[in-house]
Write a structure and sequence with these properties.
Elements (H helix, E strand, L loop, with lengths): L3 H6 L3 E2 L19 E5 L5 E4 L6 E3 L3 H5 L14 E7 L6 E6 L6 E4 L6 E3 L3 H15 L10 H15 L3 H7 L1
Length: about 170
């Protein structure tokens, strides 16, 4: 979904489905988030009327952007942002670029919820849909660090084997 105004304008959020919640905006830190039902879905997203940011619980972004990363997790290189707290867990959020984009998002390590500032949903959706159309979309984020380097090395080694041996391994 998009930041609130964009979500409402896109017709993906039901205005009347609001409920009273006690979650504070991670960006504004004083404004309460407002819950809205997502059109055609069985969940709500929470947004801030002041800054127009949107909170997605774990896996909700995948529901509204089919080209979203599956099973997104906070990567090892993410920066802990003690100024932004998870509206659910009240733990510090972690900042990192959403995979294959230049959009810096905030994510909670504990509940894996996502905070998107105004406009970030729209940018992620546009880039991910464009990558999908060009055949360059990655469904899962790359594994970072030494573990990721080893996985890529093994994959590369398997890819360079003669076909008959590679077939045995796959």
């Amino acid at each position: 979904m998009v930041a609130v105004a964009e979500v409402v304008a896109a017709g993906e959020v039901h205005q009347e489905a609001s409920e009273d919640i006690k979650m504070l905006c991670p960006k504004c830190q004083v404004a309460k988030l407002i819950a809205r039902g997502v059109k055609g879905r069985d969940f709500t997203v929470e947004y801030c009327l002041k800054c127009k940011g949107v909170w997605f619980d774990h896996d909700e972004l995948e529901e509204v952007i089919p080209a979203a990363i599956k099973e997104l997790q906070v990567p090892g290189h993410a920066r802990k942002n003690v100024e932004r707290l998870c509206p659910k867990c009240e733990k510090a959020l972690y900042e990192f670029d959403y995979p294959q984009t230049y959009v810096t998002i905030d994510m909670c390590k504990k509940c894996r919820g996502l905070w998107l500032d105004a406009g970030e949903f729209k940018e992620i959706r546009a880039v991910r849909n464009s990558l999908q159309m060009s055949g360059e979309l990655k469904e899962h984020a790359d594994v970072p660090g030494v573990r990721g380097a080893l996985i890529r090395l093994v994959d590369s080694a398997i890819g360079s084997l003669p076909g008959s041996i590679r077939d045995l391994l796959e």
